[in-house]
Amino acid sequence: MANSAQTQELVYLVTGGCGFLGEHVVRMLLQREPRLRELRIFDLHLGPWLEELKTGPVQVTAIQGDVTQAHEVAAAVAGAHVVIHTAGLVDVFGKTSPETIHEVNVQGTQNVIEACVQTGTRFLIYTSSMEVVGPNIKGQPFYRGNENTPYEAVHRHPYPCSKALAERLVLEANGREVLGGLPLVTCALRPTGIYGEGHQIMKDFYHQGLRLGGRLFRAIPASVEHGRVYVGNVAWMHVLVARELEHRAALMGGQVYFCYDNSPYKSYEDFNMEFLGPCGLRLVGTRPLMPYWLLVLLAALNTLLQWLLRPLLLYAPLLNPYTLAVANTTFTVSTDKARRHFGYEPLFSWEESRTRTIRWVRTAEGSA
Ligand SMILES: NC(=O)c1ccc[n+]([C@@H]2O[C@H](COP(=O)([O-])OP(=O)(O)OC[C@H]3O[C@@H](n4cnc5c(N)ncnc54)[C@H](O)[C@@H]3O)[C@@H](O)[C@H]2O)c1
Ligand SMILES: CC(C)[C@@H](O)CC[C@@H](C)[C@H]1CC[C@H]2[C@@H]3[C@H](O)C=C4C[C@@H](O)CC[C@]4(C)[C@H]3CC[C@]12C
């Protein structure tokens, strides 16, 4: 860790800094980057909690802006030493159009890259996703794979397509000359399913369970393993990469890293129960309570209902053909590339991650 005697001279920009992951990255930077002079938080929707951050020694600049607007991005990036680009539409529920997902996730990322080049920012970290790899449209499992594991990364859904395109833009931009004549250094981090304080889907499951009398019903076989990673460790990896990218540019530039920690490999539902169980919910069934073909039918029905109801209201349930396919396909990573390349070790143990998440769900109970 850089010693605190170091002068505070760096300017960081976090796009999507008010999101689930973004907020943790912002708070982690303020806690663990002693060289920070200014922290810019760029987001379409600024959170009220930002005000509490403005009382510390670091200048916190909240910027309400849209990554699809190149001029807004350039104004926010100008003068920054490091950009951490987490902003994006994480929509696998059909809430927004494919065009909008592309515009935000791909064109927005291109705007960030061009802003770095035009204004002279040299270090860009992109929050990619496991979904850049899979599960693919064939539903092939990815079992404890790493960054070099061969896998046919073929997608059709707008979200993974957009993340894959954006990641490629970021990696291809590595080495481009920025204003001032020095090279841009980029890398991409691929979290698996992030959990922790602020995870809206976890809250949705919790509220669903409360509505069903404290029960959730198993839909996916327990044997289907899903990789999950605690949000605090994902944030820590972003902070560490940002710190190490300058003097390890030759090794890290243009690289991708899965985000991982010591969270156990479990099915998506069993993993969620690690937190929802201590909060009073019970997962009914040791095996799926209904046949898979019926789930497929219900998922298709949800898609039809979403389409029919769209003129009246947004109907976006958790179950749709894509989420069912992802939930039902093993996707876990086992790698140490981040440790080998920049000394990453999880900041939070599994026990700490679990305790923090349970504590948060319990507070969410009040907001049911
Ligand atoms: N949540 C996960 O499990 C997960 C896993 C892997 C990767 N990721 C990636 O991490 C990043 C953050 O995801 P999250 O789960 O925190 O999502 P989130 O929706 O909580 O946060 C995204 C943030 O981006 C902002 N944003 C959206 N469109 C914008 C625009 N046009 N201009 C400016 N800001 C905009 C939103 O307001 C929000 O604050 C995304 O890029 C996502 O693809 C998430
Ligand atoms: C209704 C049941 C079938 C239930 O089990 C569905 C769960 C489903 C909503 C989730 C299962 C796997 C999740 C995805 C995974 O954790 C990784 C993701 C990558 C990230 O970039 C964005 C979020 C997500 C797509 C995540 C979304 C929810 C699931 C599909």
UniProtKB/TrEMBL annotation:
Keywords associated with the record: Endoplasmic reticulum, Lipid metabolism, Membrane, NAD, Oxidoreductase, Steroidogenesis, Transmembrane, Transmembrane helix
Compartments (UniProt record): Endoplasmic reticulum membrane
Superkingdom of origin: Eukaryota
Catalyses which reaction(s): 7alpha-hydroxycholesterol + NAD(+) = 7alpha-hydroxycholest-4-en-3-one + NADH + H(+); (24S)-7alpha-dihydroxycholesterol + NAD(+) = (24S)-7alpha,24-dihydroxycholest-4-en-3-one + NADH + H(+); (25R)-cholest-5-en-3beta,7alpha,26-triol + NAD(+) = (25R)-7alpha,26-dihydroxycholest-4-en-3-one + NADH + H(+); 7alpha,25-dihydroxycholesterol + NAD(+) = 7alpha,25-dihydroxy-4-cholesten-3-one + NADH + H(+)
Main location: endoplasmic reticulum
Keyword Methyltransferase assigned: no
Domain 3-beta hydroxysteroid dehydrogenase/isomerase: 13-283
One GO-annotated biological process of the protein: steroid biosynthetic process
Gene Ontology MF term list: cholest-5-ene-3-beta,7-alpha-diol 3-beta-dehydrogenase activity
E.C. numbers: 1.1.1.181
Pathway connected to this protein: Steroid biosynthesis; Lipid metabolism; steroid biosynthesis
Stated family: Belongs to the 3-beta-HSD family.
Record protein name field: 3 beta-hydroxysteroid dehydrogenase type 7
